[in-house]
Structures are given as structure tokens and as C-alpha cells.
Amino acid sequence: xxxxxxxxxxxxxxxxxxxxxxxxxxxxxxxxxxxxxxxxxxxxxxxxxxxxxxxxxxxxxxxxxxxxxxxxxxxxxxxxxxxxxxxxxxxxxxxxxxxxxxxxxxxxxxxxxxxxxxxxxxxxxxxxxxxxxxxxxxxxxxxxxxxxxxxxxxxxxxxxxxxxxxxxxxxxxxxxxxxxxxxxxxxxxxxxxxxxxxxxxxxxxxxxxxxxxxxxxxxxxxxxxxxxxxxxxxxxxxxxxxxxxxxxxxxxxxxxxxxxxxxxxxxxx
Length: 269
Prior knowledge:
The protein is of the alpha/beta class and 269 residues long. The protein has one domain: Metallo-beta-lactamase, Chain A. It contains seven helices and 14 strands. The strands form three sheets. A six-stranded mixed beta sheet has the order 1-2-3-6-7-8, covered by helices on one side. It is globular, with a radius of gyration of 18 Å. Mean pLDDT is 95; it is low at 265-269.
């Protein structure tokens, strides 16, 4: 198959979303589409609108609106995009506790077809219990499971997160062919340009947390100590409930207003 991937960067949270398209069948999937949030906790759809414009300019039919997990650091644009692409199926991993509002809850190894190009779901829990990655041909979209080699791996201190489970999930990713391209939902560069794609081979050789055959015991010890120093994501208090319910923009704005009313000045953690 010959798929193309187009990245979109949402600057307020530093989040990447992706359109995966099959030009032959004129079909596409949108993965981890973000909404923007400004310093006043006001929601914007700038990045999602760019995705819409790109899809429409290429005359594509969107089959799937996919989230890799319940994002804690920004609200998902999945429900907003559903209002634009009515026939697209919204989906997230079946292992996600308490999630509602999605059309499908996806199991490990479930197929997602774009015309004759069939991708599959890869369960990769650990960051959260419901994390999944999406493998289309040689392209793997991992959400927050792991990052660029110099950044390492995701935190495991959210409810249901587990460092040993994450190690097992990453081992599954690193068992894929070396040339497999891995697309990141975030990057946290220090003195270099932002990147959103690496390869299995690069991660195996250079990842500072799991590269060079780091043992599970070493990883769990490192991850536990590191997670103890991390603060909650800035917009977690409204992003998590909004994403669990696949809320649209208006509902998220109502949730933010209610949080401000009950906890003035404390909407951002």
C-alpha cells in the first residue's frame, strides 16, 4: 500500500495530530486531533480546522477519528471533527476505564481499513490502562507511550498507569521491523528543533530510558523515581473529564466555566 501522513502541530500544548490518507481509495483517518487552549482557558479549533481544510482540499473521505488514549494535557478535537465528518467513526482503546461517547472501543489487533489498506490496533497500556497505538503499513502512531530517543518514555503515575506494563508495551513496539516509523504525539526539545517521527531502530539504539537493552527492573526504578517529581498537566482538570466523555467544544467550555465557578483561579493544575 502507499499511504501518506500529514502532521499538524497545536502550539499551546505542543501536541501533534496526524492525517493518514490512502490516495488510491481517497480515504483517511485522523489520529489524536487536538483542540487548543489559551492562557485564559479559552478553547480554540485552529489546529482541527487546519486538518479539515487539508482533508477537504485533497477530496478525502474520513473513515476514522482515532484517539490513542485519554489525553490529560489538552482536550481532544475528536467530537468537534465528528460534527464535520458525520460518517466517520470515533474510536479509542477498549481498556480505557469509564469512557463514553465513542462509536467504537477498540481491542488489540482489531483492523481499521482505509480502502484496501488495512491497519491494526496495537494495545500499548502503561501510560494509561487504555493506551493503544495504530499501525498502518510501516507507520506506527504511539500517542504518549514513548517519545524521541533523547526524551525517553511516558509517565506512568496517572490512574491505572504502570511502569512494568509500559515496559512490556514498549518491548512490543521495539519488536516491529527496524524501519517502522514511529510518530509522536509530543516532543520536548532542549536545544534542537522539534521532531515528530523516529524509527524502531533509532529508539532501540538511542532511547535514554529503554535503549541498549535496559532491563525491566532498571526501567521501573527510573520511571517511578522520575514520576514522583512531575506535576499534573496544566489543563488536566478539564481535559480528562472532557476526553473521557468525548465532549464537543461547547460542552468543554461549559465544564471550564463550572470549574472556575467552584474553584476560582484553580482551573489550571
